[in-house]
Amino acid sequence: MKVTHMLKIKTNFFWDSLNVIRASILGANDGIISVSGIVLGAAGANLDSKTLLISGLSGMLAGACSMAGGEWISVSTQRDIQEKTMERQRQLGNEDCENCPIKLQKNDILMPFHAAASSFCSFIIGAMIPLLTMILARPEHRVVFTLIAMIASLSINAVVCTHNSEVSTSKTILRNVITGLLTTLVTFILGASV
């Protein structure tokens, strides 16, 4: 009885669960890349450990809030569209709605807070990887260790997001790593030129 009830809950909120997973993957990727770029740019400028920490923490909090806010706004708009679609379906009635391209149920409605919270938390988790690496590494190894940590964590995130799918893991890893390397190259050069 309990297993049946749990399965019913999972299937009832399938679309919201997918949306939360999507927001989590994007949040983690963005946290890894954004904070890597911030701390490597600061390291390129030869800033001291305290400044690196404050820059990284500020970037982490601003990025997490921005991601969560963006998810909340985006998913709220999607939810509004879903609710309007359901309202139109109710007005048409069951017989007239048989030809509707999308038949939404109450269980299909997305929850903006779920996406925002998962994006916020995953951004923080992703951002902690380059931030802690940069702060804990010896000054002469900071840049190299942070790059290694970024590449490893982006690769792991790519493996996780392509698990049990038909999507190419190697292509996803390559896209993630190239994006991270280009971002950090730009910020490091900017920091070094100051």
TrEMBL record:
Provide the GO MF annotations for this entry.
manganese ion transmembrane transporter activity
Please indicate which superkingdom the organism of origin belongs to.
Answer: Bacteria
Q: Taxonomically, what lineage is the organism?
A: Bacteria, Bacillati, Bacillota, Bacilli, Lactobacillales
- The keyword Transmembrane is assigned to this record: yes
- Could you tell me what this protein is called? VIT family protein
Compartments it resides in: Endomembrane system
Q: Which residues cross the membrane?
A: 113-137, 143-161, 173-192
Question: Major location, coarse class?
Answer: membrane
Q: Name one GO biological process term.
A: intracellular manganese ion homeostasis
Q: How does it sit in the membrane?
A: Multi-pass membrane protein
What's in the GO CC field? Answer: endomembrane system
Record's keyword terms, sorted? Membrane, Plasmid, Transmembrane, Transmembrane helix
